[in-house]
């Protein structure tokens, strides 16, 4: 689902859930690119109805960062006004990461993209040159302002006694995971499970069999991470949700009452995949709109102590060492591995596992 919102004077919001839903229906019947083109045109038309300040920016992001960027935007707008005397507004568009990247490629006028995996930004390099090939060098930490990892959310009392990745493959356990074909969240979950098995000494064939056992337990594949959270917490489907640590933290109620009057708790597996969500300025858009200065400042702001504090408050692991140390008690230690360590790089992981005919397609074909 995608929800553009705007921060700044004359706050207005609207929802365009149904067009994105239509995109995925169209994709299913083989018209994916055509559907995205139509959705992008709709989005561009709808976004033009927003009230403008002196300058407006559009941040196209993945779907579990709504709350984060709402607070970032408010702080950035005030900071930029104080330093430059210019009133900005920042609009947000959120949805499944890869679908968001494709809609930018098809014409959605994003000044900046804040995705959850580099492949989605590389797509904008490869198709149309919207982003320069060296985008990783434009900001610190390879353009990754924070990290997170994949953990579990279980129901009150953890009735299925879920402790590690191996428990997701047990018969009788229902697992909620976003679709790896459309969601970076889902890809991180899939690769985390694969990496867990490989670190135990498994062959690729054994790792794929492990994935088959897990996905046999998946009752529904939502298009994005927030949709998967809704399925688990509000629709009452599943025994365990696999998602980003920050999303789990929002729902981890301990002894309290969580979403929909239900109780949920976080479970940290023995090892997981380090998630490194990158950001980039969309060069062709900012040069066309004359917003390069503001877009660059917006993303650079993410590394300031003030923004890093907001990032930590939203349960994401900040890059700033002092801010991270201040919040150390809020982040449970967990052993992590990177995509590069297990899969070589994101391009290889994408081609092997998520391209047409890759291991994920083979897993799903054999799901039932």
Automatic annotation (TrEMBL):
Its main location: periplasm. GO terms for molecular function: molecular carrier activity. One of its GO terms (cellular component) is periplasmic space. SUPFAM superfamilies: Periplasmic binding protein-like II. It comes from the Bacteria. CDD domains: PBP2_CysP. InterPro entries: Thiosulph/SO4-bd (IPR005669). It holds the Pfam family SBP_bac_11. One of its GO terms (biological process) is sulfate transmembrane transport. It is found in: Periplasm. Keywords: Periplasm, Signal, Transport. Signal peptide: none annotated. Belongs to the prokaryotic sulfate-binding protein family. This is Sulfate and thiosulfate binding protein CysP. It comes from Caballeronia sordidicola (Burkholderia sordidicola). The lineage of its organism: Bacteria, Pseudomonadati, Pseudomonadota, Betaproteobacteria, Burkholderiales.
């Amino acid at each position: 689902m995608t929800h553009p919102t705007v921060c700044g004077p004359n706050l207005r919001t609207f929802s365009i859930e149904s067009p994105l839903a239509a995109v995925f229906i169209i994709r299913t019947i083989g018209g994916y690119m055509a559907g995205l083109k139509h959705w992008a045109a709709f989005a561009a038309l709808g976004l033009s109805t927003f009230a403008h300040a002196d300058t407006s920016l559009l941040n196209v992001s993945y779907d579990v960062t709504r709350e984060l960027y709402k607070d970032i935007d408010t702080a950035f707008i005030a900071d930029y006004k104080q330093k430059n005397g210019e009133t900005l507004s920042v609009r947000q568009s959120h949805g499944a990461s890869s679908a968001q990247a494709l809609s930018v490629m098809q014409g959605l006028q994003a000044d900046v993209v804040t995705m959850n995996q580099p492949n989605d930004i590389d797509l904008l390099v490869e198709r149309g040159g919207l982003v320069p090939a060296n985008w990783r060098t434009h900001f610190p930490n390879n353009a990754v302002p924070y990290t997170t990892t994949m953990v579990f959310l279980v129901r009150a009392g953890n009735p299925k006694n879920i402790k590690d990745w191996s428990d997701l493959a047990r018969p009788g356990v229902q697992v909620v995971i976003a679709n790896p074909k459309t969601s970076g969240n889902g890809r991180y979950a899939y690769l985390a499970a694969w990496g867990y098995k490989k670190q135990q000494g498994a062959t690729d064939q054994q790792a794929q069999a492990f994935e088959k056992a897990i996905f046999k337990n998946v009752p529904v594949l939502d298009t994005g991470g927030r949709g998967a959270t809704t399925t688990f917490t509000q629709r009452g489907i599943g025994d365990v949700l696999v998602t980003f640590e920050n999303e789990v933290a929002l729902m981890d109620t301990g002894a309290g009452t969580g979403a929909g009057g239900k109780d949920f708790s976080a479970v940290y597996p023995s090892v997981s995949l380090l998630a490194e969500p990158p950001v980039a300025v969309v060069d062709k858009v900012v040069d066309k709109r004359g917003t390069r200065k503001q877009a660059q400042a917006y993303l650079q702001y993410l590394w300031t102590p003030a923004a890093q504090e907001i990032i930590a408050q939203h349960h994401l692991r900040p890059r700033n060492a002092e801010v991270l140390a201040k919040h150390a008690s809020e982040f449970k230690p967990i052993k992590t591995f990177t995509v590069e360590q297990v899969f070589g790089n994101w391009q290889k992981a994408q081609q092997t596992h998520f391209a047409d005919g890759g291991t994920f397609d083979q897993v799903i074909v054999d799901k039932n």
